[in-house]
């Protein structure tokens, strides 16, 4: 493999796109075991993520072919690493504590990290988002979200 081709594959957006495709495909596999109505939303979102990642990959490779220099993904890698750690913590929280408790913690935490400091606004946003999710999916569609390994029988 020539250095030019190797460098094209190591561009930040290309690596991000490949990582997104692999992760989304890995999460898409377990949706085959769900009931069709339960699998519809996660499968659609994961397929959409794969499509967007493919578009990102194509766009970045076209820019590389034109000889454009890859820009850094971020000027603050600590924020990117922190965001990935927060996503990982949320995934583990959903698995062990359940969807609702994890979401109730993560919504105000993310808003706080991004600079929104109004406690009443944080409470309102949390109640509105979690309430809307419960109303549409749990109450309206009778879909149960993960309860968490710690609370299951």
- Terminal CA distance reads 54 Å
The pLDDT mean sits at 86
- Spell the H/E element sequence: HHHHHH
Largest sheet: none
Low-confidence stretches: none
Strand content: under 5%
Structural class: mainly alpha
Helix content: over 70%
- State the shape: globular
Radius of gyration: 19 Å
Number of helices: 6
Number of strands: 0
Description:
The chain has helices at residues 3-9, 12-28, 36-65, 77-96, 99-113, 119-140. By secondary structure, it is mostly helical. Helix 2 runs antiparallel to helix 3, helix 4 runs antiparallel to helix 5 and helix 5 runs antiparallel to helix 6. The termini are far apart. The model has no long low-confidence stretch (mean pLDDT 86).
Brief descriptors of the model:
single chain; 153 residues; mainly alpha; 6 helices; globular
Summarize the SSE layout with pairings.
Elements lengths: L2 H7 L2 H17 L7 H30 L11 H20 L2 H15 L5 H22 L13
Helix pairs in contact: 2-3, 4-5, 5-6
In short:
The protein has 153 residues and is mainly alpha-helical. The chain contains 6 helices and no strands. Helix content is 73%, strand content 0%.
């Amino acid at each position: 493999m020539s250095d030019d081709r190797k460098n094209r594959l190591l561009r930040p957006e290309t690596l991000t796109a490949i990582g997104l495709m692999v992760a989304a495909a890995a999460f898409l596999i377990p949706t085959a075991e769900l009931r069709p109505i339960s699998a519809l939303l996660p499968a659609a979102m994961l397929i959409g993520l794969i499509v967007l990642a493919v578009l990102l990959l194509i766009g970045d490779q076209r820019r590389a072919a034109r000889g454009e220099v890859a820009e850094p993904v971020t000027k603050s890698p600590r924020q990117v690493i922190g965001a990935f750690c927060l996503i990982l913590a949320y995934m583990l929280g959903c698995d062990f504590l359940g969807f609702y408790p994890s979401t109730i913690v993560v919504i105000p935490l993310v808003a706080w990290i991004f600079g929104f400091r109004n406690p009443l606004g944080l409470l309102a946003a949390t109640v509105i988002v979690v309430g809307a999710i419960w109303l549409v999916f749990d109450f309206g569609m009778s879909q149960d979200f993960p309860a968490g390994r710690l609370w299951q029988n």
